[in-house]
Amino acid sequence: MNILKSLWDITVQNSSKSVLILSLLLIAAGAAFAQTPSPSPATQISGVIGEVKAIDAATNQMQVRADNGVIAIVGINDKTQYKRMALGAKSLAGATDITLAEVGQGDRIWARWRPNTDQKTTPAVQLVVMSKADLAKKQQQERAEWQKRGVSGIVASVNPSTQEITVSSRSLMGPQQNIIIPVNEKVLMRRYPPDTIPKYSEAKPGKFEEVKVGDQLRALGDKSADGTHLAAEEVVFGTFKIAGGTVTALDVATNQIKITDLQTKKPLTINIKPDSVIRRFPEGGAMMLGGGMGGPGGAGAGQGQARPQGQGQTQTQTAQGPATAQGQKPQGAGGPQGAGPGGPQGPRPGGGGNMADMLERLPVISIHELKVGDVILLSSLPGADPTQLTAISLVSGVEPLLQMMAARQQQGGARPQGVDLNGSFGGMFGGVGVP
After folding, report:
1. DSSP of 214-232, one letter per residue?
2. What integer is the mean pLDDT of 277-285?
3. Three-class SS of residue 114?
4. Is residue 236 within 8 Å of residue 435, measured between CB atoms?
5. What angle, 0 to 180 degrees and rounded to 10, lies between the N-to-C axes of helices 19-34 and 2-13?
6. DSSP 8-class letter at 318
């Protein structure tokens, strides 16, 4: 049971008890259950860990989305054993015997087979289950913790000699604030891989040395009395990019959008995935920012980015399309303010309103509702091809936001050379997610 104790200790020390940790706990619990006595690594029972997508009792099959994204077909029969494991349990000793009827879609399971068994043709020996309701309750607790004790922003500097990361964060109308985060061996570091839709449960182990200036970062821990330092327990980061421009073409069949990049003036292809979230900034949205931003064609809407009033201003959620979010936000995917759409909208350092929260409340639309000439902003995790981006969160009708940021830059003494999208909107249009 030592491995179980160690994993539980890790979970307690890092108050974000992520689905990743739960997966490890499942593995450890199953391994401990299978010991009769301790088997060698060669005889460990194999299995599939993932989320139940569908159950067909008539054919004795269960469809499971494994943690690597692969859909696995798990065979079951009347000899398959079902165990419900309580969250926080250190072993299967207190697990409850249940039936197939008590396993549901969305539950997290570990389907297990005997050694040297053909998983494709042989029913699973045992299913260890964590219910969807229990996971949702735990995630709600974790989100509340991130909201209360989390900070997010853009990495302003990295100091290798002191192992410190300085994060810059600014609210919608408030001043910029820097927070220094010391990193030691006790801090759980995780990062999002490139060209993906970020999901907190799928973040990879990271290192201090991988953090770069300009990265989006979110950290959980205790703030100092003056709010300038954070004693971090967990850090999640990624090299995100905020891009924007005018839509020049739409292909709803392939879920691709062509734009003229706002900063480079070059063509850019935006790929919309099932987990991408598309929203519409409403007509008159400048009033949501406190007003005074002017109409289309004002500061920041220049450079050929203004569009006629009234174009594409639908605020109602429409029928589902191939790229629509169906009114639901993908759990864990990066959302406004660096929180996944399913994650918390935690307070940002600094005062004033919160643009991320505002964007989160915008109506979800489908790719069908976008039009040539729309001005969009989006977040992505760039891959190897700089001409292709996968949209995490995309917002259309953003001229008022561009006007506001351009005016702010000019008030700060910057020459009118266009809006710094990453500096202005990093973490607001989808980025580092939390549970």
Report:
1. T-EEEEEEEE-TTSSBEEE
2. 84
3. coil
4. no
5. 170
6. -
Q: What is the dihedral of CA 372, 375, 380, 386, to 10 degrees?
A: 70
Distance between CA atoms of residues 1 and 57, nearest Å: 35
Question: Structural domain boundaries of the chain?
Answer: 2-130, 150-238, 241-425
How far apart, in whole angstroms, are the C-alpha atoms of residue 33 and residue 15? 26
Region for residue 195 given its phi and psi (left: phi exceeds 0; alpha: psi -120 to 50; beta: otherwise): left
CA angle 265, 268, 269 (to 5 degrees): 165
Identical fold for domains 2-130 and 150-238, yes or no, is yes
Residue 276 CA to residue 281 CA, distance in Å, equals 16
Q: What angle do CA 39, 41, 45 make, to 5 degrees?
A: 70
Cα dihedral value 301, 303, 308, 314, nearest 10: -60
Domain 2-130: which CATH class?
mainly beta
For residue 38, the one-letter residue type is S
Average pLDDT, the chain: 75
**123-160: per-residue pLDDT in tens?**
999 999 999 988 888 888 888 998 899 988 889 999 99
Distance between CA 146 and CA 218 in Å, rounded?
9
Exposed/middle/buried for residue 10 (C-beta within 10 Å: 0-12, 13-18, 19+): middle
**Distance between CA atoms of residues 68 and 48, nearest Å:** 10
**CA dist., res. 106 & res. 127, Å (int):** 14
Give yes or no for a contact between 30 and 110, defined as CB atoms under 8 angstroms apart.
Answer: yes
Strand partners, 159: 164
Residue 98's DSSP bridge partners are: 82
> Which has the minimum average pLDDT: 96-110, 314-328, 383-397?
314-328
Beta strands in 114-240 (DSSP E): 126-130, 150-159, 164-170, 176-182, 188-191, 204-205, 216-223, 230-238
Q: DSSP secondary-structure letter at 311?
A: T
Q: What pTM did the predictor assign?
A: 0.61
For domain 150-238, the CATH class is mainly beta
The answer to whether 353 touches 171, Cβ cutoff 8 Å, is yes
